[in-house]
Amino acid sequence: EKYEGYYADRYTDRALKWLKGRDKDKPFYLSLHFKGPHESFEYPERWAKLHAGRKIPEPDSLHENVDKSSPRLKGMHYSSMYDPKSPKPYYLKYENVLPSKSNDPKERRSLAYQHMIHKFLRCVAAIDDNVKRVLEYLDAEGIKDNTLIIYTSDQGYWLGQHNMHDKRLILEESLKMPFIVRYPKEIKAGTVNDRLGMNIDFGPTMLDYAGVKIPAAMQGVSLRPLLRGENPADWRTGIFYAYYGRAPLHWGIRTQRYKLIHFPDTDEFEFYDLKFDPHEMRNAASDPDQRTTIAATEEQLNKLMNQTGITKKYLLEHMKNNKERPPLSGVRRVPRKKNK
């Protein structure tokens, strides 16, 4: 079948059609996915003028010198706003459609950011339209307050922070996901819980609310206690993360306060105190005042790897040389020669 119009509108049409035609005497589960907030952030014509002519504030770290602050992680990322060394600089990829051009690296980053963030916000506005349509249907049928509604994503996303776009790394903007839940029977509106959750908890959470036994094979746990405002004493204190798709290859741990990051080709590492450095601008790995904390976090990482059955040997065998940048993306980097 072929459909005309904006994809998210058509997806929602199908979702609403299914809701209307379901057996209303039985419980239901609906998962509605929107891929829009990914490059190239396509949006419908109705939002084409959103924020037109307005300069969106830049993130503080847009012009960070990542080669100096984080050469093995931020400095090796695949997708930059503008870095001539990166495989996919946003500025060069979209240079032909940018409203203006520049040879200055800082201005190139700013121009790339404004182009991307305007498209992103217009795309998300269209997603909001369709989330609203589903909520309005549930309300009209009188079942909204008896329906567990979860708004989430498959990962976070950089919008210019650290001169990056895309995701993949253990840093906060990439690692953290939105997770907004509505169920007024049990969840108080406006409450926030900052304990550590993972996407492997989504399935157990939904099964818990549905009254279905959680299979032993599921590694996650139900987030229901946190959603009720509880703080279980035995809740997880750290999460393990590893990325070995392409450079920068790395693994590490994110605890309630700290983050420790290792790389396969060196004993150098990165360490962040998220309480005092929530935007991860200062690598404290060489700070003598952090030695004891780093050692304790390293021990916590080792215990977590043992619990999950992952060894350093396994990681090293599956990670290639982190010094090798991924192949260039095909983005044009030098002006085309004019025909004589």
Structure summary:
The chain has 340 residues and is an alpha+beta fold. It has helices spanning 7-21, 66-69, 90-93, 105-141, 172-175, 202-210, 224-227, 291-308, 312-318; strands at residues 79-80, 88-89, 149-152, 158-159, 165-166, 179-182, 238-243, 250-255, 258-262, 269-273.
CATH topology of the largest domain: Alkaline Phosphatase, subunit A
Q: Structural class per helix/strand content?
A: alpha+beta
User: Could you name the CATH homologous superfamily of the largest domain?
Assistant: Alkaline Phosphatase, subunit A
What is the count of β-strands? Answer: 10
Any overview of this molecule?
It comes from marine metagenome. This is N-sulphoglucosamine sulphohydrolase C-terminal domain-containing protein. Residues 319-340 are annotated as: Disordered. A hairpin with a 6-residue loop joins strand 9 (258-262) and strand 10. The chain folds into two domains: 7-193, Alkaline Phosphatase, subunit A (3-Layer(aba) Sandwich), CATH 3.40.720.10; 238-325, Arylsulfatase, C-terminal domain. The protein has helices at residues 7-21, 66-69, 90-93, 105-141, 172-175, 202-210, 224-227, 291-308, 312-318, and strands at residues 79-80, 88-89, 149-152, 158-159, 165-166, 179-182, 238-243, 250-255, 258-262, 269-273. The chain is α+β, with helices and mostly antiparallel strands. The radius of gyration is 23 Å and the shape is globular. The protein has a four-stranded antiparallel beta sheet with strand order 7-8-9-10, covered by helices on one side. A two-stranded parallel ribbon has the order 1-2. A two-stranded antiparallel ribbon has the order 3-6. Helix 1 packs parallel to helix 4. The chain contains nine helices and ten strands. The model has no long low-confidence stretch (mean pLDDT 93).
